[in-house]
């Protein structure tokens, strides 16, 4: 038996959860008990007009954008005292690993869970502006539909074509260096940041055009990931052919915005370079083969 | 056999590791799969798993470890409440799962020679945990997501993303009762529809949100499990909720610091002097109290989660020795090479730095326990395998000859349609929502294993149920359309009733009730429980249920109404919470994660049993609790001490 028996109940664990850790050596010093304003771009559904609403929010210790949105959900009253509907947004793990809660915060695309108020809005009356991503159709308020990003993964056959799920032994051996490269690429969570920041990637509501519109840096990088794998290579030419077609690698304008906004620090421009060389070789060899 | 043109298909609800593994296995067998998920499956909660996945491999084997020992550890770790047959089968199957994931391209960490590397994890003295950085869950989920997408592009898997499961459709009574489909709602259009299927697999994960702040994703309400429970599926061991010892407390949730931090050498300590205000690095080694190493010389920082959680709780709450007098202890990795930490634990190092603003490579992390995993879940059955010794085996020691080899079918019969079927034929439970594998507490790195194992191994049983079982005798195509229409109508009525509460004067706010529910459940039913406190929680839950009956929805929208979704789930969470509290109140003993101050010892005579809750809507107390014997025919129970020192 582990705990000593002094009769304490586990209210402490909630107290622990409430007392968010305050260790903050490399932060600005936030003003405790401050109120900040959230200005949120709202839209009731596809094709509906947008409007802005502001909310005044008391900042809890350790607050992030999500906890502030949760506060609004429980207190849906605007700055002017008008009752409104709770704001709709997409969220999942809140640990910046599921990729769900991407939005535009003060003009910059990022995950809202890792946007901490102590760093971001340390002063009384600071204003934080939230908008939905602009390159995907809005579902409602801050929630957008990113199916096109997943569709792009189908275009480049972003998988290893295994022979099935039965016990057929181990996969290919791999050096730690190669594992390291693939691991970095494999952390892509299809969050949409790179597409939002890309000048070549535009809103496309028409699903029938998803196969020919720019595929996005994330998909190019995933093509590299699977072209790098011993078994994944089997589909290398299919992937390169897809990327040689309309909306493929040649649509990349090399603005390099993608790599700057990637929350996982995936070397997207490096991937684009690698795939650029692979597609060039592929194009030349096809030309020689007269295909 | 019927002459209708019904095409057999399987519904999978939930797109985490269990749901995706099941989808892939079933699609591969040629049965089309309809996969339902509230989120794009790539964003399922499995993505959060950090540390790794357990399986005996050749290196471990040559050190004297075995699949059998992995089995023995799991049973011992779970304090003998796990189903022994399925666990034996799972641990024997584990190496095949790792091989498969490897073939799918999961970037497992490698040794210089290119082999898969291994790490230590709690509850074992052998390295038997495979890992991919500190984002193993993400990597595994993505591999299965990719295979699912491959089948989707071939038209064998049909994804319904942003669809919420509302209810199983059950027809018949008594012996003829079976599950024939589901009702679900499109979370964008709010359209409610019923879907016909020959079998339904629930793979909907845990219920962390019942406790408010937990390490779970915001979708882990337990709502789906509760809806099956209310439709007649049994719910087992609800009181067995794992509190993870090491998490970062936050305003919106608690973020997990993987057990791999301890496995890679992380040391848990507090200053010897109460209320020591010096920064950690200024406290010399001899003035630090490494209480886990002191109390558990054999396992040290690698004691299982329930023990670590209680010790941390004890040191902070009972002794007041927490860092700065707060409920925090140090988890210290600063003695390790920063580059090594980046390579092995980069993912969680980043999380800590990102969410606390401190680099754990150079400063000890501050952590505290948080609700993490639901060992309990929907009750499931299985068909035993061919290994049933005359008498249960005593403790197995490393290097000894194992009583049985690791051939398949030893613990559970391959392909049996009974495997992981609930008490309702045709309704299956896979992964965290299934109660079978973890007993009274889950060993670290066994969750990913149990999810994928269910999907791959028990998926085959579902195929057999559809192809050879009841749906062949009585085609699902012959089930009257009115059964489906009535089911969706009932859900439509429920929704209309909730929407009609918009603007009610004096109505209750669901988010406020939800917050109170979380605070109460965390206080009454986590690390340490007492009868009196649980009784109080029963009253509080009654009050919350009463207030919930007066809830007023905040949004009347007929498009993407998240308030509706949350409010409806809250009602289901309240019901599940009652089973958690009642199960804990009636289990008058301490076992695994369930620790009763007023009954501090394990009581095998009365409670070597599975708690089973059955919903009885007509009774005043709607939860009938009864007990089922645990099958202990394979391993003989022994006290669970982890070599605790006598002091």
For the biggest β-sheet of chain A, the strand order reads: 2-1-5-3-4
Cα(first) to Cα(last) distance of chain A is: 74 Å
Gross morphology of chain B is globular
Low-confidence stretches of chain B: none
Kindly report how far apart the N and C termini of chain B lie.
69 Å
Shape of chain A: elongated
The largest interface is:
A-B, 96 and 114 residues
Average residue pLDDT of chain A: 92
The number of distinct β-strands of chain B equals 21
Major sheet of chain A, described briefly?
5 strands, mixed
Q: Report the major sheet of chain B.
A: 6 strands, antiparallel
| Rg from alpha-carbon coordinates of chain B | 24 Å
Number of helices of chain A: 10
Give the gist of this structure:
The complex is a heterodimer of chains A (291) and B (647). Chain A is 32% helix and 12% strand.
Question: What report would you give on this structure?
Answer:
The complex is a heterodimer of chains A (291) and B (647). A five-stranded mixed β-sheet of chain A has the order 2-1-5-3-4. Chain A has a two-stranded antiparallel ribbon with strand order 6-7. Chain A is of the alpha+beta class. Chain A has helices spanning 11-18, 65-74, 117-120, 147-155, 176-186, 193-197, 217-227, 236-244, 257-261, 268-288; strands at 35-43, 50-58, 102-105, 108-111, 127-131, 138-140, 143-144. Chain B has 647 residues and is α+β, with helices and mostly antiparallel strands. Chain B has 17 helices and 21 strands. Chain B has helices spanning 17-28, 58-62, 67-77, 84-103, 136-153, 223-230, 260-263, 291-295, 305-318, 338-356, 447-468, 470-473, 481-499, 510-524, 531-548, 562-586, 604-607; strands at 10-13, 33-37, 53-54, 118-119, 129-130, 157-161, 163-171, 178-186, 192-196, 199-202, 235-236, 241-248, 255-256, 267-271, 288-289, 329-332, 365-374, 377-378, 427-429, 609-615, 623-629. Chain B has a six-stranded antiparallel β-sheet. The model of chain B has no long low-confidence stretch (mean pLDDT 96). Chains A and B meet through helix 1, helix 2, helix 4 and helix 5 of A and helix 1, helix 4, helix 5, strand 13 and helix 9 of B.
């Amino acid at each position: 038996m582990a705990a000593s028996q002094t009769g304490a109940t586990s209210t402490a664990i909630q107290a622990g959860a409430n007392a968010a850790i305050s260790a903050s050596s490399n932060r600005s010093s936030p003003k405790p008990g401050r109120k900040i304003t959230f200005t949120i771009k709202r839209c009731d559904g596809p094709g509906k007009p947008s409007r802005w609403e502001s909310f005044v929010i008391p900042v809890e210790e350790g607050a992030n954008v999500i906890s502030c949105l949760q506060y609004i959900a429980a207190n849906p009253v605007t700055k002017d005292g008008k009752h409104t509907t709770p704001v709709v947004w997409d969220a999942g793990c809140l640990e910046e690993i599921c990729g769900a809660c991407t939005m535009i915060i003060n003009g910059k695309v990022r995950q809202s869970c890792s946007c901490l108020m102590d760093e971001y809005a340390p002063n009384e009356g600071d204003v934080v502006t939230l908008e939905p991503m602009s390159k995907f159709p809005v579902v409602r308020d801050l929630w957008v539909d990113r199916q096109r990003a997943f569709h792009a993964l189908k275009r480049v056959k972003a998988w290893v074509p295994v022979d099935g799920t039965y016990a057929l032994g181990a996969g290919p051996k791999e050096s730690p260096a190669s594992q390291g490269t693939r691991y970095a690429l494999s952390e892509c969570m299809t969050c949409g940041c790179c597409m939002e920041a890309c000048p070549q990637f535009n809103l496309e509501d028409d699903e029938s055009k998803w196969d020919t519109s720019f595929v996005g840096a994330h998909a190019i990088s995933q093509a590299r990931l699977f072209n790098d794998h011993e078994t994944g290579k089997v589909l290398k030419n299919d992937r390169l052919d897809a990327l040689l077609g309309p909306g493929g690698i040649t649509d990349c304008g090399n603005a390099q915005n993608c790599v700057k906004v990637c929350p996982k620090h995936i070397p997207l421009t490096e991937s684009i370079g690698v795939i650029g060389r692979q597609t060039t070789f592929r194009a030349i060899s096809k030309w020689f083969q007269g295909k | 056999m019927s002459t209708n043109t019904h095409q057999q298909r399987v519904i999978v609800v939930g797109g985490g590791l269990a749901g995706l593994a099941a989808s892939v296995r079933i699609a591969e067998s040629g049965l089309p799969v309809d996969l339902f998920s509230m989120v794009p499956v790539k964003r399922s909660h499995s993505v959060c798993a950090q540390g790794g996945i357990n399986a005996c491999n050749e290196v471990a084997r040559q050190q004297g470890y075995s699949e059998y020992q992995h089995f023995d550890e799991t049973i011992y770790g779970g304090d003998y409440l796990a189903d022994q047959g399925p666990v034996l089968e799972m641990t024997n199957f584990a190496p095949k799962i790792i091989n498969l994931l490897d073939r799918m391209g999961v970037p497992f960490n490698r040794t210089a020679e290119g082999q898969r590397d291994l790490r230590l994890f709690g509850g074992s003295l052998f390295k038997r945990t495979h890992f991919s950085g500190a984002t193993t869950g993400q990597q595994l989920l993505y591999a299965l997501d990719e295979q699912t997408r491959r089948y989707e592009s071939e038209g064998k898997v049909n994804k319904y993303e942003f669809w919420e499961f509302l209810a199983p459709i059950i027809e018949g009574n008594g012996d003829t009762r079976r599950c024939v489909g589901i009702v679900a709602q499109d979370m964008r259009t709010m359209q409610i529809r019923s879907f016909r299927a020959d079998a339904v697999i629930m793979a909907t994960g845990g219920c962390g949100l019942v406790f408010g702040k937990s390490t779970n994703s915001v979708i882990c309400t337990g709502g789906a499990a509760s809806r099956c429970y209310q439709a007649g599926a049994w719910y087992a061991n609800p009181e067995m909720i794992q509190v993870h010892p090491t998490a970062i407390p936050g305003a919106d949730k608690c973020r997990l610091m993987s057990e791999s931090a301890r496995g890679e050498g992380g040391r848990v300590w507090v200053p010897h002097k109460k209320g020591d205000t010096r920064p950690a690095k200024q406290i010399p080694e001899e003035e630090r109290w490494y209480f886990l190493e002191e109390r558990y010389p054999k396992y040290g920082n690698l004691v299982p989660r329930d023990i670590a959680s209680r010790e941390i709780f004890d040191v902070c709450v009972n002794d007041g020795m927490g860092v700065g007098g707060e409920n925090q202890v140090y988890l210290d990795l600063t003695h390790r090479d920063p580059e090594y930490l980046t390579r092995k634990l980069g993912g969680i190092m980043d999380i800590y730095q990102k969410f606390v603003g401190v680099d754990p490579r150079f400063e000890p992390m501050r952590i505290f326990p948080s609700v993490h995993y639901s060992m309990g879940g929907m009750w499931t059955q299985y068909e035993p395998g061919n290994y049933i010794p005359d008498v249960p085996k005593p403790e197995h020691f490393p290097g000894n000859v194992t009583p049985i080899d690791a051939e398949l079918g030893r613990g559970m019969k391959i392909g049996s349609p009974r495997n992981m079927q609930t008490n309702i034929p045709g309704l299956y439970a896979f992964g965290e929502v299934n109660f079978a594998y973890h007993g009274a507490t889950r060993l670290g790195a066994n969750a990913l294993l149990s999810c994928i194992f269910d999907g791959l191994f028990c998926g085959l049983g579902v195929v057999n149920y559809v192809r050879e079982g009841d749906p062949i005798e009585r085609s699902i195509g012959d089930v009257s359309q009115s059964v489906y229409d009535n089911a969706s109508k009932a859900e439509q009525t429920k929704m209309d009733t909730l929407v009609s509460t918009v603007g009610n004067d004096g109505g209750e706010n669901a988010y406020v009730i939800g917050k109170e529910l979380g605070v109460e459940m965390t206080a009454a039913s986590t690390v340490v429980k007492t009868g009196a406190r649980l009784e109080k929680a029963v009253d509080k839950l009654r009050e919350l249920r009463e207030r919930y009956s007066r809830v007023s929805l905040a949004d009347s929208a007929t498009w993407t109404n998240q308030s509706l979704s949350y409010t409806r789930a809250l009602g289901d969470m309240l019901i599940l919470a009652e089973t958690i509290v009642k199960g804990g109140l009636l289990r008058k003993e301490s076992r695994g994660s369930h620790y009763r101050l007023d009954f501090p010892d394990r009581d095998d005579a009365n409670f070597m049993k599975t708690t089973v809750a059955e919903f009885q809507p007509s009774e005043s107390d709607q939860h009938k609790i009864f007990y089922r014997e645990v099958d202990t025919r394979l391993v003989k129970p022994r006290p669970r001490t982890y070599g605790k020192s006598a002091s």
